[in-house]
Write a structure and sequence with these properties.
- This protein is of the alpha+beta class.
- The chain folds into two domains: about 170 residues, no CATH class; about 130 residues, Beta Barrel (L,D-transpeptidase catalytic domain-like).
- The strands form eight sheets. It has an eight-stranded mixed sheet, with helices on one face. Strands 2-1-6 form a three-stranded mixed sheet, covered by helices on one side.
- Strand 1 and strand 2 form a beta hairpin.
- Helix 2 packs across helix 5, helix 3 packs antiparallel against helix 4 and helix 6 packs across helix 7.
- The longest helix has about 35 residues.
- The chain starts with a helix and ends in a 30-residue tail after the last strand.
Length: about 425
């Protein structure tokens, strides 16, 4: 075999191996390891020092606000929370002297409470505490970076001024005492012995709820600087409306006046005398009561019921049905006085005298006419009135229910 071919076919394992770089002696290897450890320790010391310095710096500036923090529209960078609160309180006190004019519509009453009198207050402490909490939530590296680089955090916190609603209520209550007036019902005056209708007078009341709302709204807008200089509401203030209170009684459609001394009944319609009637009233033993009453019931063809079966009516029947023998005639107007009625009678000779058991007698035709002209609830006023000469007996009035034998001296029922 040719030597060259033999060389090619010779196994590779027979070729000598590359021994590589010569191995270091043990001492140099230890030296490299030692310096690596020293370098790492130095680096750790340096990093620890930086972290410690950063921590110490953060702690020393913890009570001062970061760049870019605004509270109540004021840049507070580097300020302590207590200083921020004090500065806002100074503005707060200056605003407190500002007055809010209050007038009452249609009245001379007015007030000018200051914002301080209205309980001006602000949520300054809570807002500053929120700003501090937001800074602490950022983390120490971020805070240090913003402080060292002066990089603003761009955070703004609004402080709202408010008022005490109870103070506004007190202002309105004081004004209400000046302007409130109760309505006066129409009333019947008989001081002259006749009927005079005194007209009703409407009342008025301050609309306190509306006033409180308007006062609070304007006051808080002024306190928070939300009223521009061109807005006239700061000068004109608050106008509080008045409510009109209507009386319960504004007129009297009908009034009945009875003057017992002259045994006459006066019927007034809308304050004007419409008709005068001769009547009979109670005797000295059974007087007609004096005072103010009203018609409580209108009775058509009433049944007479014995009002005193154990006394003066002991000999009389328990009741008498409607008809010619009924002592109440054909109509009766019950008053809110026990046993007292205005009713018809067939004994027209008794009219103009004191002859009844307390009731007011009228002729049957006139009792029917009055019955049709008045309503339940009509006021009935009974007064003595001036004494009058005894009039001549009224003539008998023929009618379908007249019965000369009827017990004409019976009353009530």
């Amino acid at each position: 075999m040719h030597p060259a071919v033999a060389d090619v076919l010779e196994p590779a394992a027979s070729a000598p191996k590359d021994p590589g770089p010569p191995a270091l002696p043990p001492e140099p290897r230890r030296r490299v390891l030692r310096w690596s450890l020293i370098g790492g320790l130095v680096l750790l010391v340096l990093v620890g020092g930086v972290v410690g310095a950063a921590y110490a710096y953060d702690q020393s500036t913890d009570d001062r606000f970061l760049p870019g923090v605004r509270v109540a529209d004021v840049d507070v960078e580097g300020q302590r929370p207590a200083d921020v609160i004090a500065n806002i309180d100074a503005r707060f006190r200056a605003e407190g002297t500002r007055q809010v004019p209050v007038t009452v519509a249609g009245a001379k009453a007015k007030a000018s409470p200051s914002l301080e009198e209205l309980g001006l207050r602000a949520d300054t402490a809570a807002v500053v505490a929120k700003a501090q909490a937001d800074e602490r939530s950022m983390g120490m590296p971020s805070r240090v970076r913003h402080r060292l680089l002066g990089k603003p955090v761009n955070r703004s916190y609004t402080v709202r001024f408010g008022l005490d609603a109870a103070r506004a209520t007190a202002v309105m209550a004081k004004l209400a005492k000046e302007v409130d007036r109760r309505p006066e019902d129409a009333r019947i005056d008989t001081t002259t012995g006749l009927v005079t209708i005194v007209p009703s007078v409407p009342g008025q009341a301050l609309d306190q709820k509306t006033g409180e709302t308007k006062l609070m709204e304007l006051g808080e807008r002024l306190a928070n600087g939300e009223v521009p200089g061109t807005d006239t509401s700061a000068a004109t203030g608050v106008e509080v409306p008045l409510q009109t209170l209507q009386p319960k009684v504004s007129t009297f459609a009908d009034v009945i006046l009875i003057r017992t001394n002259e045994n006459r009944l006066y019927h007034y319609e809308n304050g004007a005398l419409a008709k005068t009637y001769a009547v009979a009233t109670g005797t000295a033993q059974y007087p007609t009561p004096k005072g103010r009453f009203q018609i409580t019931l209108k009775r058509f063809r009433p049944t007479w019921v014995n009002p005193d079966p154990g006394g003066w009516g002991a000999s009389l029947p328990a009741s008498i049905p409607p008809g010619p023998g009924n002592p109440l005639g054909t109509r009766a107007l019950n008053l809110n006085s026990p046993g007292i009625r205005i009713h018809g009678t067939s004994n027209v000779a008794s009219l103009g005298t004191a002859a009844s058991h307390g009731c007011i007698r009228m002729s049957i035709p006139e009792s029917e006419a009055l019955f049709d002209r008045v309503e339940q609830g009509t006021p009935v006023i009974i007064i003595p009135g001036p004494p009058a000469a005894k009039p001549p007996p009224a003539p008998a009035v023929p009618n379908s229910t007249f019965n000369p034998t009827a017990p004409v001296d019976l009353e009530a029922g």
